[in-house]
Design goal:
single chain; mainly alpha; Outer membrane lipoprotein wza fold like; DNA polymerase, domain 1; 3-stranded mixed beta sheet; two-stranded parallel ribbon
Amino acid sequence: MSFPPSYTRNPYKRFFEEHKKSCVSIGIMVLLIGGWLFYICVSSQPSGELIQPTQDEQAKATTPDTPDKQAPVYIDVAGAVVHPGVYELEEGSRVGDAIKQAGGLREDALVSSINQARKLEDGEQIYIPSTSDQTPAPDPTQQAGGAGGTQAATGHSPSSPSGLVNINRAGIDELCSLPGIGPSMAQKIIDSRTEDGPFKTKEDLKRVRGIGEKKFKKLVDKIVV
């Protein structure tokens, strides 16, 4: 049996023609597998692109964090200070800072009842009592009745023209002249007006621990704010 010369001279061509479909299928599979392997190799490598930070990010990295500015507090400093008035202080300031802002204490200031370490609150008043706020010692010559017995005749305390005790200015001795008020309770009253601000009404006296409705009724006609 004889074959055409071209058929016998090229056996690869003959094989391809006999298995054409199989060769095409194998070629497609090789391309798919090769493409899949190439994708795996590329995706597993880190990207070489360098991402530059924005200007805002650079500014945040180079600028240290600064705390927000605290709102000021305004304090009314009154009484025995060099320059009474309203002062602006930083939040978190203490009573001692407000006294310094007001020029310091006068020579007649009484600070034994003042807690200078207490933190201030916006809008409060600090009153520094003085020696002139204390009740003067009674004159023995005025204790007797008659024309010269002014105090005995009137029955008024020298704390105010009306004979009433000013609970915002009275010292321990003067407060102790009130019925049912001893040294301990008088100190509580002074601490309350120093730490919580002055009494705005007579009823505010009931905020002092130990002064209830019953005791307040005995005091209400003898005090003033």
